[in-house]
Amino acid sequence: IQMESLLISDEAGPSSADFEESAPSGSSSMTTSGGTRGAPTTYVVEGLEQKIRYDESSRPRPRLRSSVSVDQLAHPDPKILDDLEAASRRIASNVDQVVRELRGSLHGMSDLVVEACQCYQSAIGSACDHADQHIRNTYSMIAKVEELNGQLEKVSGTAGKIKEMRKIVEQFEGMLKD
């Protein structure tokens, strides 16, 4: 069973008791939910789409009047043709205006896209230049660190000689105290 929900909200909002009183007998296809004043009321109707389709198919189709002659159809009223021509001119004018506005909008959008691409290209170029400079600085720093390490090796040799000299001085002081 297919059920569709139809939401009807009014300021008073009928209670479920009000709905049951106003419902005709045998209308079990409608139920209500809600029921407090001011709250929206929901009506659930079973097969709503099918009922609408049935109602549309049962309506009588309008028929052409038999009093319209072939001469009237072959020679329409000139005033109608003038009205149609005026309406078509207004429509053509509106279409032209819409196309002009669309063209202007598209040109504006294209200009914005070009500016965005130029900004993007500038940002990428600047970022590449900065990255290249940082890489050069890093290699320069590595070279300086290697040079410093080479000089520190000389310092460690000198430190060993200083330790030996200190031992000799301590031995000499020890001999003088005795």
UniProtKB/TrEMBL annotation:
**Biological-process GO terms, alphabetical:** lysosome localization
Q: Name one Pfam family in it.
A: BORCS6
Positions of the BLOC-1-related complex subunit 6 C-terminal helix domain: 75-173
Q: Which domain of life is it from?
A: Eukaryota
User: Region (Disordered): which ranges?
Assistant: 1-40
One GO cellular component from the entry? BORC complex
Q: Which InterPro entries match?
A: BORCS6, BORCS6_C
Q: Where is the composition biased (Low complexity)?
A: 25-34
State the protein's name.
BLOC-1-related complex subunit 6 C-terminal helix domain-containing protein
The organism named in the record is Pristionchus entomophagus
Q: What is the lineage of its organism?
A: Eukaryota, Metazoa, Ecdysozoa, Nematoda, Chromadorea
